[in-house]
Amino acid sequence: MSLLVDIMDSWRAPRRVVRQHLQRPRSEAFLFTFLFTFLLVSFIAQWPVAARLSHMQPEVPIEQRMFGFALGLFALVMPLAYALAALSRLVAALMGGQGSWYSARLALFWSLASITPAMLLMGLALAFLGQGQQTTALGVVVGAVFVIRWVLMLRETERGA
């Protein structure tokens, strides 16, 4: 299946989609594409925000803002994602999980990739509305959706063979 079809299916049946990915042959490159997809779409989602901020504060050009976003995403989020997946595996093992390090990464990275439509919505909301109560509430909802999806997928991957 294509990644876009899987993302859309994942909004209806996240556990089924993660089970399908878990049944594929193990491939770190395959998992990395999920994390990279999230990082790339998150970067694209920041473009309208950077354009708005550069318009409001022209002394900082959009290129500098986008470079800062890219540096933050790729230099900070990527290693943190791997560390968070490892931590989730340790916690799951303490709770009797039967998964693996690979399945913990799959659960986290797929959860991140599957919320990319919400990340695009968040970027547009920030670009049009700016920081405020509405965008804060939307951020809380997007964050909650991510956590719920991650927990569901982690539980599914920790069931074991």
Uncertain stretches of 5 or more adjacent residues: none
Classify the beta-strand content into a percent band: under 5%
Describe the global form.
elongated
Mean pLDDT: 91
As a whole number of angstroms, the C-alpha radius of gyration is 17 Å
The major beta sheet can be summarized as: none
Instruction: Say how many strands there are.
Output: 0
Derived structural class: mainly alpha
N- to C-terminal distance: 23 Å
Tally of contiguous helical segments: 8
H/E element order: HHHHHHHH
The helical percent reads: over 70%
Describe the protein in words.
With 161 residues, the chain is mainly alpha-helical. The chain is built from eight helices and no strands. It has helices at 3-12, 14-23, 28-45, 47-56, 62-94, 101-114, 116-129, 133-157. The longest helix has 33 residues, at 62-94. The mean pLDDT is 91.
SSE inventory with pairings:
Layout: H1 3-12, H2 14-23, H3 28-45, H4 47-56, H5 62-94, H6 101-114, H7 116-129, H8 133-157
Helix pairs in contact: 1-2, 2-8, 3-5, 3-6, 3-7, 4-7, 5-6, 6-8, 7-8
Tag the structure with descriptive keywords.
161 residues; single chain; 8 helices; mainly alpha
In short:
The protein is mainly α.
